[in-house]
Specification:
With 419 residues, this protein is mostly beta strands. It contains four helices and 31 strands. The strands form seven sheets. The protein has a six-stranded mixed beta sheet with strand order 1-2-3-31-30-29. Strands 4, 5, 6, 7 and 8 form a five-stranded antiparallel beta sheet that branches. The chain has a four-stranded antiparallel beta sheet with strand order 9-10-11-12, with no helix packed on it. It starts with a helix and ends in a 5-residue tail after the last strand.
Length: 419
């Protein structure tokens, strides 16, 4: 009988102990949650590094914690590749140093930062080879690659002295870089007019010759694909078809037939969207992850009616999602599962002249329009720096750049409030 009483007493004591531990654990969780401040997104929140946006309720984080300017990639350039052990993801970014702008990686889980390049001079290119695990970039007149894991750097090609060359994209099998050759005369226009508002019309109106090119990664062989007395720009290879190369006619969008594809073997060119009314514009184009659709900002006409449109390259059909004026964004992007989109908004000086457009958005298709959700209040961001939104590889966050601190930094926002 005494033994039974002892067992009962022991069990009661054990249960009380478990409840006490659960209570302590619960309090700790509440305390940890309460440590994330609810703040207006801006300078002070950026200093806090992690916060809940006071307007939207979404969790925002300053993603990269290092001195100087840090910049994520342009919206249509992929910055992600798996970690070496394939258990996580790296993001490649640019950071300022005393030795010029350099390439870095950050482990999105551990936040560990690794400097990939150290060669003197600013880097340009924003090109990541996920198969070869290399970053490709230009310094002045030369192209290099650096291995993400070993940091081994290889010289690839030097442009002719009488031309200005650049590369901006890598094809799907990672054998060819794509870019353009331009003239010294054009370079002088850029030098004399460093502000976009000054050079934009001047470069377009100059009608100087540009040449679409590829550079063979293994041999450095340069091939000229197509040339025109026009501002050829925004070069981007298909993510799945190594022969398909997209480019645009840059300039005032209502004056150009902007988005084109060229087959690098046959040299056949295809206009992606043909204007239907005067001053209709289409631009800021990007591929879907499966390579089957080219998405773009469509306005019929300019500044009046807004859509995110997608041209299916297999069927030729064009899908349009209508947007409200305040939902219009400088850039859009698509989730890895291709079920939703993001937009980086815009201030009143942009083409939409939105009265309340300074937000980061998440868009979910609903018929021929979107159900939109505001993720980050961007009223303390200067839109001279475009946020350039990217979905994280797991599709759970939006990564963007902003100047809340007066310099460029990289942030992320969690899409699901409950997380």
């Amino acid at each position: 009988m005494k033994t039974h009483k002892l067992i009962v007493v022991s069990l009661i004591a054990l249960c009380l102990s478990c409840k006490e531990k659960q209570s302590v654990s619960g309090n700790t969780q509440k305390e940890n949650k309460s440590e994330i401040p609810v703040m207006e997104t801006g300078l002070e929140s950026s200093k806090a590094k992690v916060w809940i946006d006071a307007t939207t309720g979404h969790r925002v984080e300053k993603l990269i914690d290092r001195e100087g300017d840090n910049s994520s990639f342009y919206f249509n350039n992929n910055p992600f590749l798996p970690t070496k052990d394939s258990k996580g993801w790296l993001m490649i970014f640019y950071g300022s140093t005393a030795n010029g702008k350099q390439l870095f990686s950050i482990d999105l889980k551990t936040k560990k930062i690794d400097q990939l390049t150290d060669k003197a001079g600013n880097k340009s290119g924003e090109i990541v080879g996920t198969k070869t695990r290399k970053v490709y970039y230009r310094i002045n007149d030369s192209i290099f690659s650096t291995h993400v894991d070993t940091h081994k750097t290889t010289f690839i090609f030097k442009f002719p002295e009488d031309k200005v060359g650049s590369v901006a994209t890598l094809n799907a099998d990672e054998t060819l870089l794509g870019g353009v050759l331009s003239s010294k005369e054009e370079q002088e226009i850029f030098k004399k007019n460093p502000s976009k508002s000054d050079y934009f019309d001047k470069i377009y109106e100059a009608k100087l010759n540009r040449v679409l090119i590829t550079v063979e990664v293994a041999t450095g062989k340069l091939t000229k694909l197509f040339d025109e007395n026009a501002w050829l720009n925004h070069e981007l290879f298909s993510p799945t078809d190594p022969k398909l190369f997209m480019y645009c006619h840059e300039g005032p969008w209502h004056k150009v037939d902007r988005i084109w594809n060229i087959n690098i073997d046959t040299k056949e060119r295809t206009l992606i969207h043909k204007r239907t009314v005067e001053r209709e514009i289409a631009g800021h184009e990007f591929f879907s992850p499966d390579g089957k659709t080219i998405w773009f900002d469509l306005q019929i006409p300019r500044g009046e009616t807004f859509y995110l449109a997608g041209k299916n390259l297999v069927t030729g059909e064009e899908k349009r999602y209508a947007l409200k004026r305040d939902e219009w964004s400088i850039h859009y992007n698509i989730a890895p599962d291709m079920k939703s989109f993001a937009g980086d908004g815009g201030d009143a000086g942009q083409v939409a002249h939105a009265r309340d457009g300074m937000w980061l958005y998440h868009f979910v298709p609903n018929g021929d329009s979107f159900v939109s959700e505001k993720l980050v209040n961007m009223k303390n961001h200067n839109y001279k720096l475009e946020p350039n939104v990217h979905f994280s590889p797991d599709g759970k966050r939006i990564i963007f750049r902003a100047n809340f601190e007066g310099k460029t930094q990289v942030y992320s926002v969690v899409i699901d409030k409950s997380k």
